[in-house]
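Entry:
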Amino acid sequence: MGNLRTKDLSKIGYHNDQLRSLVIGIASKNFKHYSKQQLLDLLVEIKNNPEAFLDNELTAKIAQKVIGKTDGPAFKAYELRDEPVFCKTYGGKGIETSAKKQMELANLLPVSVQGALMPDAHMGFGLPVGGVLATDNAVIPYAVGMDIGCRMALSVIDETDGFLKRFDYQIKQALKNHTHFGMEGGLDVRQEHEVLDNLLFREMQLLRPLHGKAARQLGTSGNGNHFVEFGEIELLADNALGCLPAKKYVALLSHSGSRGLGSAIARHFTQIAMNTCKLPRHAQQLAWLDLDTEAGQEYWLAMTLAGDYAKACHERIHSNLLKALGLEALHVVENHHNFAWKEQLANGREVIMHRKGATPAHAGELGIIPGSMTTPAYLVSGKGVGDALYSASHGAGRAMSRQKAKESMTVSAMKKLLSGAGVALIGGTVEENPLAYKDIETVIAAQRDLVDIQGRFFPRIVRMNKE
């Protein structure tokens, strides 16, 4: 097959991005022995008379797409349910009304099966942050979120808490030299990881131009509430971390996601969902992709890759820092909290489980629930509660918008707050000041039926995006 390009398809009337992506994928698989001109001639025939190609296994998908674009609207309209599906709310007194209403709207979708709202919930895009939604064979890009695969990673280190004081300078230098935050740029040393060899970067049209940026941003963190921090973790007796004794250890904790790769995937497929799944205007952000469709399958593959990439970023961050400081990890705990999974409910029904800022908490599953720069993060194990859709909160949750946090806290006041808590901050903004978040103790207490506490991590040296 000749080197078929999207501009060649545009010249013969294939203007839709999704259609062009489909054509190139099918052509590379089924028409390898065609010359470029032979293939273009065939595609012109399909475009001009698609019905004639519906019975041919090799051309049927292209013909169906052409018919869908030329003969009528390539979308289906849906109405909302009269009553919402069952949704259990935890810590409801501390959740703003707007977040509850946003969750109720999601529970009215015709594909919704069950919902749950975690005690850290606050308003977001699509689902509220802290929202969990089980759907029937449908994935909602905005219910996964823009930062696909945003996650936590904790390395418990074979050092006592005294290490942090003795090597304070070296730790700060390592954080400055081996982490990078923000939308642009990357680390000085190019990072390597097998995730960059994933065939999807070559096979999926959307992903091909994103490979270079993914390579540049590997091992870096975003802005906002993303962080990399050293601190001390106190493991409780009979903890679930194998054979680690109950005592204090040094630990490294990071929070970030899939960077520009995940954002581009989210934007692309959200637009496809909103173009093909028509809902009442106030619910349009919750448009979904049927997993039996080409777009649904493509999103699932791309989402999975973004999750793997986010995991790879954390692996590089932890590896680089530990190597620079001559440290070793005794145990690593990590979890996604912006993702969708295929799971089963207690009754055996298979669903697509969206966790938008929620920690997976199946029975015995380990996770990390952070507080703020001056409050502890909790290492927990799930209890597998069905009403909570096997989930827990993903943090303390915001008590203030970023704008309100900026208006209510000065830089000098934040420095005083951090100093009083024994925390050193590199970068960071007043938008992320500790008072901008809910009380982590209240949030943890509201989900005592969902998780068992295994340990508490206290931040000591924190790196965040610069102002």
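Residues 69-73 have pLDDT under 50 and may be disordered.
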